[in-house]
Design a protein that fits this description.
It contains 5 helices and 6 strands; from the N terminus they run αβαβββαββαα. The protein is α+β, with helices and mostly antiparallel strands.
């Protein structure tokens, strides 16, 4: 336990790891550390048993990029050991620690509608993938900074996600 005047330790791997993580805390820590976002009551990454439906290519329309979608896509890319490059495929479902996860439907559509990635639809949610866009790479590098982004992507998955 730290002293009362010490700042809390972030959990994302950008800085030192602290035990007790689960996906919600991990997501909140990554989003907070990289983008300065406040913790959310609900996160867009769910256990694979969540009733996700297969995606279709995004409908027309656009929306602004948010840290919520960017964080979900970064965590999925990190879990897949995918390079952050335009055209790179990132699976919508992934293993992290000893569990399988999926990016929920609404967030997945928001990722596509905001231009962060195109959808490469599969027959099931486990087979869906995202195709990273140049806009995604530029947005996360500008919002998080290239060095913090590299540090996050290179950091190991926190041990508490393996519990």
């Amino acid at each position: 336990m730290g002293r009362p005047n010490e700042p809390p330790q972030p959990l994302s791997g950008v800085r030192a790891e602290v035990g007790g993580l689960r996906m919600r805390e991990y997501f909140q820590s990554v989003e907070g550390d990289l983008f300065g976002a406040a913790p959310r009551a609900s996160i867009p990454i769910k256990p694979i048993t969540f009733r996700a439906s297969a995606l279709t290519p995004a409908r027309s329309g656009s929306r602004d990029v948010t840290s919520r979608e960017a964080t979900a896509l970064l965590i999925a890319a990190k879990a897949a050991a995918a390079a952050l490059e335009p055209g790179q495929l990132v699976p919508r479902s992934f293993s992290l620690g000893e569990r399988e996860w999926v990016i929920e439907n609404g967030c997945s559509q928001d990722i596509a509608q905001s231009g962060l990635a195109d959808i490469d639809p599969g027959a099931t949610p486990r087979q869906d993938a995202f195709v990273l866009s140049a806009r995604f790479i530029q947005w996360v590098e500008r919002a998080a900074g290239p060095e913090r982004l590299r540090t996050f992507m290179a950091a190991p998955i926190p041990q508490s996600m393996h519990a």
